[in-house]
Amino acid sequence: MLPRKIADSTVRRLAIYLRFLEEFQRQGQATVASDALAQRAGTTSAQVRKDLSFFGSFGTRGLGYDVVPLADRLREILGLGHRHRVAIIGAGRLAAALVDYTGFSARGFEIVAVVDRDPARIGAVLAGLTIEDVADLEHVVRRGEVEIAILVTPAGPAQALVDRLVAVGITAILNFAPVQLQVPEGVDVKNVNLAVELETLSYALSARAAT
Amino acid sequence: MLPRKIADSTVRRLAIYLRFLEEFQRQGQATVASDALAQRAGTTSAQVRKDLSFFGSFGTRGLGYDVVPLADRLREILGLGHRHRVAIIGAGRLAAALVDYTGFSARGFEIVAVVDRDPARIGAVLAGLTIEDVADLEHVVRRGEVEIAILVTPAGPAQALVDRLVAVGITAILNFAPVQLQVPEGVDVKNVNLAVELETLSYALSARAAT
DNA sequence: CCTCGCTCGTGAAACCTTTCACAAATGCTC
DNA sequence: GAGCATTTGTGAAAGGTTTCACGAGCGAGG
Question: I want to staple B18 with a disulfide (CB 3.0 to 4.6 A). Which of A85, B74, B108, B184 is the partner?
């Protein structure tokens, strides 16, 4: 059903296409051409068609793609058919911003637990969830049948926490800590590193200035 | 001085190497081999050497790289020699998390202004900065000699704000809004899209389950 | 001061991703 | 129902990035 190996860049674009398909759907458009999708997504029509072709062929020649069925299929491909249960590790300001972000639940990601190490935070309520003790991490993850962990801790404890998460069976981690996590085969980590993003912008500024 | 075109992936790795070099420096290590750096950064020694080779050759054969000079050179390459002034557009929770993040100032990024549209927020103080009216965006950017804008608004107003930022000369934007921004040649945008990250993790979960 | 072991620097090869270009297929119009 | 305009699906080509492999150069140690 799913082909062997799909490039990460392709998967990211599929997620972006899905967003625009949903927009087209809201606007009542029934079909959309690869070119229209490409323009919105900042890519080319050939890229769109190639990306989709990895999973079959859903277009109609001369017309384009039917918006609703394509969106459904993309959701299926991306595994958004069921809700994913997410735990947030660390209850600082970034965690507060994340639980607040309505986009999560709108797209099927449900935050079921927040843990922290700081006794001053444990017991407090964040967006309806009581912050729990990170000491109970394993219990919290099992109880919530958590699939995805979002790590928003300082760099120091990050690796140890990941080791514990992996040990209880977590295989998908979104990491905001500025460290390169070591994980075994079969565990996926996506890093979001604000410092790296800013530094690439800084590089771009310098590179332009040097020209 | 700077070579033609450096891949984005290379620049990102340089930023990561820099982080580890600083760690080695704190630990008092004088030299480091490409292999040690590679292991920490999750890549290969050949990759490290290739990345560095684009900018010259700073290693000593048989020995490795001198930690301090290499770190200095990387900072220079990345344009971290002087502080960058940053404005934050949008004063929601994510903005609060960002101004709070000490990593910014530690790495030479200084937040000089925060603006928002909401009258209820304007005038409030966030980490020592008074939130200003987004209507005065152009004035704020000029006054602060802002180089980098961080966009943390909802998707709706994002493009219009970017147009205004570009018009006042901003050429580097870090975008957290879940839209694909259209900018003219010569303006750099880095996107951080939490929904896309989560959806790629969701895909990875499905793809593994299907195997 | 010669040899040895180590690690860099780098062209070449392998691999992967994107772009191109065009045949094939569809809907629409007349 | 034939012809036309349109847009998909996809091999092939181009372009880009990573890995390989090895010569070159350096320091250490005798």
Answer: B74
Q: Which residues of A spanning 40-69 put their CB closer than 7 angstroms to strand C? A: 43-44, 46-47, 49-50, 60-63
For A147, nearest residue in chain B (alpha carbons): B205
Per-residue pLDDT at A211: 66
Tokens matching residue A75: 């959701």
pLDDT of res. B103: 79
Does domain B84-196 fall under CATH 3.40.50.720? My reply is: yes
What are the beta bridge partners of residue B86? B111, B148
Among B77, B200, B211, which would you mutate to test the A interface (most chain A Cβ atoms within 10 Å of its Cβ)?
Answer: B200
- Which of B4, B12, B194 is the best substitution to test chain A (most A C-beta atoms within 10 A)? B194
Cβ neighbour number for residue B93 with a 10 Å cutoff = 18
Q: Is A87 helix (H, G, I), strand (E, B) or coil?
A: strand
Residue closest to C11, CA→C1'?
Answer: B50
Q: Which residues, in sequence order, are bridge partners of residue A59?
A: A65
For A60-109, the pLDDT digits (tens) are: 999 999 999 999 999 999 999 999 999 999 999 999 999 988 788 888 99
Residue B147 CA to residue B93 CA, distance in Å, equals: 23
Interface of B with A in 119-148 (CB under 8 A): 147-148
pLDDT of residue B22 exceeding 70: yes
Based on C-alpha coordinates, what's the Rg of chain B? 20
Domain boundaries, chain A: 8-77, 84-196
Give dist(CA A55, CA A72) in Å, integer. Answer: 13
Q: What CATH architecture is A8-77?
A: Orthogonal Bundle (1.10)
pLDDT digits (tens, 9 = 90+) for A37-58: 999 999 999 999 999 999 999 9
For B57-113, the pLDDT digits (tens) are 999 999 999 999 999 999 999 999 999 999 999 999 999 999 988 778 888 999 999
